[in-house]
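Project standup — Tuesday

K.O.: blocked on the structure for the chain from last sprint. Re-posting the sequence here as requested.
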Amino acid sequence: MPTPVQDVRRLHRRLVLRALRDHGPQPRADLARRLALSPTTMTKVVGQLLGEGLVAEGATDGAGTRVGRPSTEVRLRTDARHVIGVQVGAGTVRLGRCDLKARPLEVCSFAFDLAGEPPERVVRRIAEAAAALAGDRLLGIGVAAPGPVDAGQRRNVLSVNLGWRDVAFADPLERALGVPAVVDHNVRAMALAEARYGDTGGADPLLYVYVRTGVGAGLVIGGQPFRSGAHGVTELGHLRVVERGRPCACGASGCLETVAAEPYLAERARALLGRDSQDPLTDLAEAAHGGDGRAAAVLEELVDRLATGLASAVNLLNPALILLGGAFRTAPEPVFDLVRDALQARAFPVLRDAVQVRRATLGPDAGVVGSAAVALDRLFYDA
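H.V.: unblocked you, prediction finished:
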């Protein structure tokens, strides 16, 4: 069991690593002032991290508080350790070996048969693909699972859209790879990644909404992912927005994701455009911009229903920033203008004036970065 002295040393270590992650290279004196640590303590902590190869020091002109004079900065060696991030989607898995700032260095993916391939087989394939990516500096593996996870972050409790229930990820991956594994809800992981590593300007609270096969949401408050109740999920996609609407995979009807997720958009685009679409939201928006009144009506309906769900989230959670990802990553900017206008008309006045709606910033590998961010928080920055 760690002694009180060891606990304090670990705390100081975590503080320094987080400060370098969040604020970049800094002179020791600036780090000490930022963290309210003594110069002696800072010397000990930096010395330990140098010995482990986790940080480096070098002279940079004009760095630190003495402008214009060379100053020795401490910087995080982001390549010193790696984690593997895994995003599990509807019929696809994407993996990436990531550095200490969750940046993917090498990425691979594979498809699986939802109908014919049991989840246990998919987990074995994840282990095989991860082993091919792993190196000798691997800290662990994070999994962004499509649904609620257990309190210990070991299992995917339920995935409505995949038809999975109680799927163990952590145990088989740890046995196969010999490193720790941690599992989290996929969209909450993406929200954490945006808060840690995205271009969000430090907005807090931050609500991330991901539209693909379903409509998921993740919330970060005070820099920490929000986990309420036993499973900690924010099921925005299962708010009822249509009375007597379409049946949902969750067993209810009229849920937001039945009228806002990609399968519905693809169905409407196919009916209106006479062809299959790889990016139905963009294709519908472009058709509407070109004067297609039917496409404009579908887009207006989508925005109306999405804004109804977002207004509920704003009124309950009061986020400073809403990021829209997934299908919205490539949507034209006028679509965001429509969402902003519709949200303004629905949210509580004081709250609607304070919230921004923007495009998610992390790109197509958001799920990989998110799962890596979860692993880094658990296994490195909070270890």
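K.O.: great, moving the ticket to review. The longest helix spans residues 293-317. The mean pLDDT is 93.
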